[in-house]
Amino acid sequence: DGGITQSPKYLFRKEGQNVTLSCEQNLNHDAMYWYRQDPGQGLRLIYYSQIVNDFQKGDIAEGYSVSREKKESFPLTVTSAQKNPTAFYLCASSMWGLADQPQHFGDGTRLSIL
Amino acid sequence: AQTVTQSQPEMSVQEAETVTLSCTYDTSESDYYLFWYKQPPSRQMILVIRQEAYKQQNATENRFSVNFQKAAKSFSLKISDSQLGDAAMYFCAYRMNRDDKIIFGKGTRLHILP
Fold first, then answer.
1. What is the DSSP secondary structure assignment for residue B22, as one 8-state letter?
2. DSSP per-residue letters across A42-64
3. C-alpha distance from A18 to closest chain B C-alpha (Å)
4. How many CA atoms lie within 13 A of A37 on its CB side?
5. Cβ contact A60:A46 at 8 Å
6. Nearest CB to B45: which of A45, A90, A100?
């Protein structure tokens, strides 16, 4: 079955440490997205990518970095510059240029500070 | 900039009754798409229903229907015959036709009372 796989499900970060969240999809989607979810804040866009080797900042990109070396993969690195990283992170994908198509989501990664 | 507003942070409804969740949005565009997503306690995001702005007919999916008022920029979700499995966070979302970004509201938590 096609879908989006996020790993790990739970992740702990020490002060000053960078951590990377994995997102893989086998839906042959062009566009991939990272969202951060905090209580009462809904989903806020961190980064998105429409094509391999290209990505754009979303609304809250500071303290995060991404790469898109393969169509199937869009890892998110939470750097030490992100001072409040504790949140639920969702990865999504969709067909590029087909706005009527919904985004498909992974099951999320919960990141906490040790 | 486009915004999506869900004015009801929480709602409750008796099982088997009907409930309406509100959503308003702000845009100067005429061609766009609107979505309702459901996020149950498992945190998985599930598409409930979608509406194309150029279609006047309100979308319907089984017990779920929308009241789309384009001039008023309103997109409410009606759930008929509420079931315990409908308990979840519901997010309203907007996507412009020429953009791959989706803008989410902050969500409404729906409780189903047995």
1. -
2. EEEEEEEEEETTEEEE-TT-TTE
3. 25
4. 23
5. yes
6. A90
Listed as ranges, residues in chain B with pLDDT below 50 are none
- Tens-digit pLDDT profile for residues A29-73: 999 999 999 987 889 999 999 999 999 999 999 999 999 999 999
Q: Model confidence at A1, in pLDDT bands (50, 70, 90)?
A: low
Distance (Å) from the alpha carbon of A28 to chain B's nearest alpha carbon:
16
Are B106 and A41 in contact (CB < 8 Å)?
yes
Two tokens, residue A51: 């094509």
Residue A14 has pLDDT above 80, yes or no: yes
Q: A85 near A65, Cβ under 8 Å?
A: no
The pair of three-digit structure tokens given for residue B47, joined into one six-digit string:
């598409």
